[in-house]
């Protein structure tokens, strides 16, 4: 019963999100923009990991780190580097 309720909430919220996106005539361009940001975030993390600028520090490519860099931009890479260095030495 619980999974049916949660599933129906998920479907309803997805339909509401699609309604809002297409009502404002954003269409598929917003998905392309988000996709470009995600690819650039992954590329930024990859460049930092394998360029050799900072040795001994590796930022994993996972949804949390890519999401952080997607939202914050390239300063998000600096934030992740600072957290990695300060927390894990």
Automatic annotation (TrEMBL):
UniProt entry keywords in alphabetical sequence: Membrane, Transmembrane, Transmembrane helix
Pfam family, one: BofA
Transmembrane feature ranges: 6-22, 29-49, 61-83
UniProt xrefs under InterPro entries: BofA
Top-level lineage group: Bacteria
UniProt name for this protein: Pro-sigmaK processing inhibitor BofA
